[in-house]
Amino acid sequence: MIRGGVVVDGTGLARRRADVAIARGRIAAVGHVPGASRAARTIDADGRIVAPGIIDLHTHYDPQITFDPWASSSCQHGVTTVLAGNCGFSIAPARAQDRAYLRALFAVVEGMAPAALDGVAFEFETFGEYLAARAGRLGAAR
Description:
With 142 residues, the chain is of the alpha/beta class. The chain is built from 5 helices and 7 strands. The longest helix is centred in the last third of the chain and has 11 residues, at 99-109. It starts with a strand and ends in an 8-residue tail after the last helix.
């Protein structure tokens, strides 16, 4: 049993305080779980986010989350965590003279529409600046 955490489940529902019951390695219930005190093991998640969903280990959301901080197409499928930039290329670092190349790279390799890539607000050059520009914006209205 994971008790008292703030559940973000990837369904599009608002985050909420709830328990997550696990049985035989699978999520058995989310919410107020009767009989929670009988759990073989309890994890206190107070003050923590619990994301019982799908972790997408290979995405190219690094451009998209600059204009879609929800990574909308993933959360509609139950994805609660995405990793990006782990395959050898990313939207950052992005020096001004390299941005046209990066747009073309994502358009060709990922099949992204060039118009979508025009939505990327290049308010960063280094990877550190990219991360700082995302701080407080992921999962929030822009």
